[in-house]
What we know:
Blueprint: H1 2-12, H2 24-30, H3 34-54, H4 63-69, H5 74-81, H6 83-96, H7 98-108, H8 118-141, H9 148-175, E1 178-184, E2 190-197, E3 202-204, E4 214-218, E5 223-227, H10 231-251, H11 275-283, E6 293-295, E7 298-300
Antiparallel strand pairs: 1-2, 3-4, 4-5, 6-7
Amino acid sequence: MLDELFRKPFLLKADPSEKSYPSAKTIEDMFSNLVCIIGFHTNFFLPMIKERVESWTEDSEIGDIFTKLAPLFNLYTIYCQSYDNCSGIITNIAKKFPKFAADLNNIEKKKECKNLRLTHHMLDLIQRIPRYNLMLNEILKHSEPQSAKYENIKNALNLMSAAAHKANDRLTESFNDYIICCVKQSSSKYRKKAEFEFSTVGLLKDPDDKIPTAFGISNLNELMILKSATLEDKNSWIDEISNVISTHDASSTESNTVSLHTVMVSLVSVRPNEKAEWIQKQLTLTSENKIMIVDQSKVLPV
């Protein structure tokens, strides 16, 4: 998906002069060593697995394949380590090139993207290593401890564990930066409705007087109202989200992080001729007293 849906279409519009669109080099930098990983799978890993499966017998195994190719799985380690840099490149060029930003937005809206951003799809590649690790673990459970197969699988598992650990750390760090609101579609699938980065998230305890069990989550661009089954559930959610926000703020190195997430003043209460002065005043407050401005159902940046 990353290559066909994102990378190749972007490259078709690449501008060497970078006057209206990012250059091919910048686009390649966005995806780190994706091309190398695709080459590894296309030319080595998948052909070897396919050949083994097609000639499978009772004595066949796959542990030796993972062991033989273990050094090449370090390509995933490189990819994991460059994820933050790639995400930063995407953000920067989307700001610099409106045409690129529009193309990116249009692609992300496609059905195949399942309402997820490019940066989220880039995490799918990182998930492969933990999946391989789980698969090898399952094979090991069903192998005879005294057999040569068992030792080969165990050796392969040990070699893959380090890469899997790094990948899991990367996934945990990435998803810990967001609140993702989803709607359950089936027993195992969810559809994403909205996402909020902790660095700009706001929590509204009582967004609607007519619905006492409602609360809101907002950022500088949108507001989502959620309804709990009971007041007890609502308070539990508010406490949990508040704790996570506080933990994130405490560990954040960003100096401009909004630290208080309860809306205290509505923009409606400020006279039009005093709006600019009032907003400037909020910007001079300490991080503990910063607030977000709400105009009915739309959250505006201070």
